[in-house]
Amino acid sequence: MTLAQTPSPSLWERAAVRVPRLLLLALIFLAAPLGAEAQQAGKVWRIGYLQTSPREAQLHLIQAFEGGLRERGYTPGRDIVIEYRFADGRVERLPELAADLVRLKVDVIVTGVNPNTIAAKKATTTIPIVMAGSYNPVEDGLVASLAHPGGNVTGLTLNAGAEIQTKRLQLLREINPELSRVATLSGIGMSYNPSQVRVLEDTGRGLGITILPVEFRGAGDVGDAFAKIGRARVGGLIVFGGPLVLEQMARIASLAVKSRLPAIFNGRQYARDGGLMSYGADIADQWRRAAGYVDRILKGAKPADLPVEQPTKFELVINLKTAKALGLTIPQSLLLRADEVIQ
After folding, report:
1. CA distances from 94 to 53, 220, 240 (A)
2. Are residues 130 and 112 in contact, defined by beta-carbon separation less than 8 angstroms?
């Protein structure tokens, strides 16, 4: 048979040549992800944790955050290192603490309320920032919108609409049916507090309740703030959260009792520290959910593409010790609705 007469390879012969090549390509394709996963598995991630308040005041939130990481397969101290930075109530220290985390080249920075996030955002435009509990993040320029944050910031907001302020006023009225005047107390410099006051004023008008806003700058004028509240003859007090309030919580709780003033706060830790009642978002749950954002970012998601989420869990806590000190009898119907009653 001449060369010209050599028959072409059969279908089976051509397949025999092609199969090993396909097998080789398949093995290469499968090996690539395995190698990437092995590389990721060996990496130790570094997370920055930036808060204004002292570590002692953050213990329950730290526990919730680390718990959220464990739920997602991370082990703090082994495959993830958390760099904790606390300003101990001194907001002016936040920029240096944020800059320190940037120098450490952390993979993500997790923050609490707005001053922490603002400091972190000024320190870096590239490291992802996860807010665990912001107020009015769009109005404060932290994100472009809740649905499309843009930039390097995303996370969770504590905003829950006017309903939560209405609820706080209604809870105070359940204790004092004749309630007609309520003071608000907040630390100065919290940019989101004026908007909360406006919501309360609008809500109060619908309930026939007048709102008196009062601010304080620090330890030196908490007493003056309560003197002003006393002169206004209010029947209840709503205390907004924030670093200054947390720092002065013991004194605020004591002065509220001394003034015979039923007070409601925005988080469980305030009621546990002596406040009469708290109603608001479950802050620990916010920090647990923040761990989910961290997980998604470490797996490649961009903060700009992760929508900012609102609270999903709310809780009512009542401190009966404080009620007794105030000479109040809490209605049984209210006690039955509470998530926690502190005896």
Report:
1. 10, 22, 21
2. no
Extract the tokens encoding 40: 């990721």
Cβ atoms 153, 131 nearer than 8 A: yes
What pTM was estimated for this model as a whole?
0.79
Burial of residue 12 (number of CB atoms within 10 Å: 0-12, 13-18, 19+): exposed
Contact by Cβ (8 Å): 262, 176: yes
What digits encode the pLDDT tens for the residues 192-248?
678 788 888 988 898 899 999 998 887 788 999 999 999 999 999 999 877 778 778
Amino acid at 293: Y
Token pair for residue 312? 């999903």
231-265 CB burial, b ≥16 within 10 A, e <16: eeebbbbbbbbbbbbbbbbeebbebbbebebbbbb
